[in-house]
Structure formats: C-alpha cells, structure tokens
Amino acid sequence: MTSFKLKNKYLVSLGSWLNELSLQGNESRERTRFVNMLIERINENEKFRAELLDKYVNKDESGQKKKTTNPETKEEVWDISEHNMNEYIREYSELMEEDYVMDILEGNKQKLKVMKEAVLNTKYIFGPQEVDTPQEKLAKLRQMNDYEIWCQAFESVDFKD
Known about the structure:
The protein is mainly alpha-helical and 161 residues long. It has helices at residues 11-20, 25-56, 82-97, 106-120, 134-155; strands spanning 3-7, 67-69, 76-78, 99-103. The strands form two sheets. It has a two-stranded antiparallel ribbon. Strands 2-3 form a two-stranded antiparallel sheet. A hairpin with a 6-residue loop joins strand 2 and strand 3 (76-78). Helix 1 (11-20) runs antiparallel to helix 2.
C-alpha cells in the first residue's frame, strides 16, 4: 500500500489551488472532502506555530505577548529577540518540512483517485503572463513550481490493492 505524501509547506497552496478549479458533481464533492482533510492538518500546523510564538515572544509583566515597531517598515511586529527568532524559525521550518501522510484506505481512496486525476490532467494554465505585476509573476512562478511538487506526490500514489 502506498500513501499520499506532501510536505506541510505545500498544503496551503494545494488547497487554495484546488478550490480555484472548476469541478462539477462528484469531482467537486470529492475535492471539498479532500481539502477539508488538508485544512485539518493546516489548522494543526497553525496551532503549533502559535505555540511556538508564545514560547519565543517577549512578554510583559502580566504575561501578555509584546509587540514592537519594525524600524524599517514601521509595521507592528511581535517582540522576539534575535536568538529566539532563530529558534522559532528553526522549529517552524522543521514543521513545514515534515510530510503530511494520507494512507490509501477504503474511506479515502475515491477522493484521492479523483484528486489525482484533477491535478495531473488539469487544463489550468500555469506561469506568469506579460500583463502581470512583478508580485503576480513571482506568485505564479511559485505556483508553477508547487504544481510540479503536487504532481510528484499524486504520481507516487498507487491504488493497486
């Protein structure tokens, strides 16, 4: 039995992109179910990120997280020492590099088959266009690269019993 495996850092982009696809009927329902499974993991990851922030952010006398103003951007940001920021980034990066694993079971085999077909045979056009702003071009290049990772994850899924 094989599994669907995708690094945590690609879950949000896959879920967002799948929600952009025009699918009908059963495909749409299976997409919703699949994305909901991704959202569960995304929420777990976000909870861990919040715990890390709480662990590393400076706190005031009453235990409330402190903020400071970034001198360059003038934006309000969490007050984290350089050492703690390095630890926060290290731990969060480790989390994002972990694999999300979905075993091929009877309860999710159909949704994985439908999603594999939708991802591998999409008519969606990837990549930047001439009229895109530099930010849009960069986002579309990232999406194009993420698509290759998604395809590899789905191509590795074998539905043989």
